[in-house]
From TrEMBL:
Coiled coil: none annotated. Signal peptide: none annotated. This is Peptidoglycan recognition family protein. SUPFAM superfamilies: N-acetylmuramoyl-L-alanine amidase-like. It comes from Streptomyces millisiae. Gene3D superfamilies: Peptidoglycan recognition protein-like (3.40.80.10). It comes from the Bacteria. Residues 27-183 form the N-acetylmuramoyl-L-alanine amidase domain. Pfam families: Amidase_2.
Length: 365
C-alpha cells in the first residue's frame, strides 16, 4: 500500500526529475476528497484534454465542468513540456475501470485487456491531462512527451515503483473500456513506459544524450556508450540466433550494475560500434557468427527486427575463442530504434558466451 505523496514531496520529486513546474492557484488544497478516498495509490494515468490552448485548458482542469467538478487531474502537461499543477488529492480523472488492470499495475506485470468498469480509479492513480485535441491528428511535441516521461518517472521513483517492471504508468485507454486517450502522432504508452523504465535506471537528474556536442572549432564530437557483462553467461544453442544480454554500463565514473538488458544503442543516431565476445566450448572448425540487428517499435508497442548489419563469421580451431568486430551504420525511422547484438553457431553442442563488451560512438541522426 502506498500513501500519496504530500504536496511538497510531489513538487520536489518533479523538480528533481528535471520537470518544469508551474503552480496554479491553490492547487495544494484543491481536491475532491469530500467525495471519497485518495489512496492507496498504485500508479500514474495519462490522458489527453481534447482541448487546445494552455491557459484555457489549465483553467478547465482546475475548475472542471458543469457535469464534472474539478480538479480533473493533478497536473496539466502543456505542449511546451510545462507541468501545471492544478490539484492535490482525489481528482476526477480516471473514473471506473478494470480491476484486473489495477491488479496488474500493482504486481508490475503485463496489462490485460480492459473489459470491465468495476473499480474506482480516482482512488488509486495520479492523473496527468496532456493538452491535445485527441483527434489522432494533433501532434505530440517531443518536449511534451519528455515531460510525461519525467513526471511519471518522478512519481514512480518517489514511491519505489518500477523495480519489477514498467507498468506503473498507464493510459486512460488501458484502464477504462471505450477510452482512446492518449492518442495521436508522437505518443505511445509502450514508448512512454520504456522511457520511464530507462530513467529509473539512472539518477533523477539524468538526461539522455542526443549525441550532439561541439568542440572548440564547432565540429561535432560523438558521444560514447559502453555496455558489458559481469559474472553473467549466455548459453547459445546450435543453429539459433540468440540476443546477448548486458548487465552493466559504464557511466563516466565507473561501472554500474544493471538488470540484464538487450539494447546497446537507442536511435535515431548514426554510430560506430565495436563488439567483443568470448565464447567457451566451440568445436574445431565450427562457425560462429556475430551481427548487429536493428529493431523498431511496432504499432502494438513491441519491437521487431527491421534489418541487420553484415555478419562476421569466424571459424575457430576448437575450444575457446575471443572475437572483436566493428560496424558503422545508423538507427533512423519514424519510431524509436534499438540496436542489439545477436550471435549464432553451427556446432553440434551448445556453447557459452561468458563475456561481452559493446562500445559505441554515436551522434544524432
Amino acid at each position: 500500500m502506498a500513501t500519496p505523496l504530500s504536496a511538497d514531496k510531489l513538487l520536489k520529486a518533479l523538480k528533481d526529475e528535471g520537470v518544469k513546474v508551474a503552480e496554479y492557484k491553490s492547487w495544494r488544497t484543491h481536491n475532491r476528497n469530500g467525495a471519497g478516498a485518495w489512496g492507496p495509490v498504485h500508479g500514474v494515468m495519462i490522458h489527453h484534454t481534447v482541448t487546445s490552448g494552455t491557459d484555457s485548458s489549465v483553467a478547465l482542469c482546475y475548475n472542471g465542468r458543469s457535469d464534472l467538478p474539478g480538479p480533473l487531474c493533478h497536473g496539466v502537461i502543456a505542449k511546451d513540456g510545462t507541468v501545471h499543477l492544478v490539484g492535490h488529492g482525489r481528482a476526477n480523472h480516471a473514473g471506473k475501470g478494470d480491476g484486473d488492470v489495477l491488479a496488474a499495475v500493482i504486481a508490475e506485470r503485463d496489462l490485460p485487456a480492459d473489459n470491465e468498469s468495476d473499480t474506482d480509479g480516482n482512488v488509486h492513480f495520479y492523473g496527468f491531462e496532456c493538452i491535445n485535441l485527441g483527434d489522432n491528428e494533433d501532434p505530440w511535441p517531443a518536449a511534451q512527451v519528455e515531460a510525461i516521461v519525467r513526471a511519471s518517472a518522478a512519481i514512480c521513483r518517489a514511491h519505489g515503483w518500477g523495480k519489477e517492471g514498467d507498468t506503473s504508468v498507464i493510459g486512460h485507454l488501458e484502464w477504462q473500456p471505450g477510452k482512446v486517450d492518449p492518442r495521436g502522432p508522437g505518443i505511445s504508452m509502450g514508448d512512454v513506459r520504456r522511457r520511464v523504465a530507462e530513467r529509473l535506471r539512472h539518477d533523477a537528474g539524468w538526461s539522455p544524450d542526443t549525441g550532439d556536442q561541439e568542440d572548440e572549432e564547432g565540429d561535432i564530437v560523438p558521444k560514447r556508450s559502453l555496455y558489458g557483462t559481469h559474472e553473467y553467461t549466455r548459453t547459445i544453442e546450435p543453429d539459433t540466433w540468440t540476443t546477448l544480454h548486458f548487465n552493466r554500463q559504464y557511466e563516466g565514473k565507473g561501472w554500474v550494475e544493471k538488470e540484464p538488458q538487450v539494447s546497446i544503442l537507442f536511435g535515431p543516431v548514426f554510430f560506430s560500434a565495436s563488439i567483443g565476445v568470448r565464447v567457451r566450448g566451440l568445436q574445431r572448425g565450427a562457425e560462429f557468427q556475430i551481427r548487429l540487428a536493428r529493431y523498431q517499435e511496432g504499432e502494438d508497442g513491441k519491437f521487431e527486427r527491421t534489418g541487420t548489419l553484415p555478419i562476421n563469421s569466424p571459424v575457430h580451431s576448437g575450444g575457446d575463442g575471443h572475437f572483436t568486430y566493428t560496424w558503422t551504420g545508423q538507427l533512423t525511422g519514424s519510431r524509436r530504434g534499438r540496436l542489439r547484438v545477436e550471435v549464432i553457431h553451427f556446432g553440434d553442442e551448445p556453447v557459452t558466451v561468458d563475456w561481452a563488451l559493446a562500445e559505441s560512438l554515436y551522434w544524432a541522426a
